[in-house]
Structure formats: structure tokens, C-alpha cells
Design a protein that fits this description.
The protein is mainly alpha-helical and about 210 residues long. The protein contains twelve helices and no strands.
């Protein structure tokens, strides 16, 4: 691992990053500490070999406190803190944009809001998900969750139901095209923008 990756820390969710009371800030610090220590242990001894008890000890909390933040070790790796950033960025886009154009602008804004170490953490997290056989089943569920998240965003943008045929086709096309490259260039905003440009052009270059 590079020095940048080794010092990576998870991004703060959008709500916490925007402020909040002392209690919320303490909860967010604890959550970030759990994830930072968990990924340090994953790097040092492997995901499979790392236990919840070890993560809790490294974060200076009890296992019961760990489970108040994450229902399982798996969820420490699966939790995607970019989701609220992306959703908030899309909601800020002007409604005269096409849905794909809004996704593209939101992607650029969300990635630009990350510090270098936050970007490194998220890239490491995605690489972990696709390199640990134990997580493969969970990743399949995560792909389905991402598709429904995109469908929900598209439904709100267009005023259609989330199970509308074209909304689901849009969500499937966008999610599937991203997944086609995830093992080649994990967590690349440039790749995401290129995919959106290709879809927006109607795949006319083929």
C-alpha cells in the first residue's frame, strides 16, 4: 500500500460534514475511528482474519458499541459514504438539465469534495470489496441496492414511480455500465464521466 492509502480515512457523511450538535459530532468521530482502525487491520492481517473484537479493541470501544454503529464486520466494508454526497449533489442540479447531465455534474462535484485521503480510503474500500471472496455475495446485493438508489433518484427527478419501465431501464443501464469497469479501474471519476458521456450520446460511436 502507498503512504496515501495507508493514511486514508473515510469521508464524513454529508449531514455530519455540514455541522450538527456535539453528540452527533462525537458519534461521527467514533464511526470514522471504527472504519479507520478496521481498514488498518484489514491491510495488516487480512479481512478474513480480522475480528469484530479486534476492531473494537483498536478503536477503544466495546464490541457492543461496535454493533451500535455497524451490524457486522461486512457492513464496515460495504457502507458507502459517497451515497449521501451524490444524492445531495444531484438535488442541487438545475432541473433544466437532462438526468444524465445531472448525474455527470453531481459525480464531478461529489468527487471534488473529497480530500486526497478520503478519496484514497474510498478507492481502497472498493478494491477490498472486489478482492475478498468472502464479500462477493454482499457485493451482488450492493449492486442491486445501487440500482434501486439510482432508480429512486431518477423517479424523483422525472416525477415517475421508481418501478416505471424507463426509470428501471435507465437505472440498470447506468449501474451495469459502471460495474463493467469496476475491476479494471476501481473508483475512477474519469471513467464514470466517460461512461455517462457514452450513454448520453446514445452509444452512437458503436
Amino acid at each position: 500500500m502507498s503512504a496515501e492509502t495507508a493514511s486514508a480515512r473515510p469521508p464524513a457523511p454529508a449531514k455530519a460534514a455540514a455541522g450538527g450538535g456535539l453528540r452527533e459530532r462525537k458519534k461521527e468521530r467514533t464511526r470514522r475511528t471504527i472504519r479507520t482502525e478496521a481498514f488498518r487491520l484489514f491491510r495488516e492481517q487480512g479481512y478474513t482474519e480480522t475480528t469484530v473484537e479486534q476492531i473494537a479493541a483498536a478503536a477503544d470501544i466495546s464490541p457492543s458499541t461496535f454493533f451500535r454503529y455497524f451490524p457486522s464486520k461486512e457492513q464496515v466494508a460495504l457502507a458507502d459514504d459517497l451515497d449521501p454526497l451524490m444524492i445531495a449533489a444531484i438535488e442541487r442540479q438545475p432541473r433544466d438539465l437532462s438526468l444524465l447531465a445531472a448525474f455527470k455534474k453531481a459525480t464531478i462535484e461529489a468527487f471534488d469534495s473529497l480530500s486526497a485521503e478520503e478519496f484514497a480510503f474510498e478507492k481502497e474500500r472498493v478494491q477490498l470489496l472486489y478482492s475478498v471472496p468472502e464479500l462477493r455475495g454482499a457485493v451482488a446485493q450492493e449492486v442491486q441496492r445501487n440500482m434501486w438508489m439510482v432508480a429512486d433518484i431518477a423517479a424523483r427527478w422525472t416525477g415517475r414511480p421508481a418501478d416505471d419501465f424507463e426509470v428501471l431501464a435507465f437505472a440498470g443501464a447506468l449501474t451495469g455500465s459502471m460495474m463493467a469497469f469496476i475491476d479494471r479501474d476501481p473508483f475512477s471519476p474519469e471513467r464514470i464521466v466517460r461512461v455517462i458521456d457514452f450513454l448520453e450520446a446514445g452509444m452512437s460511436s458503436l
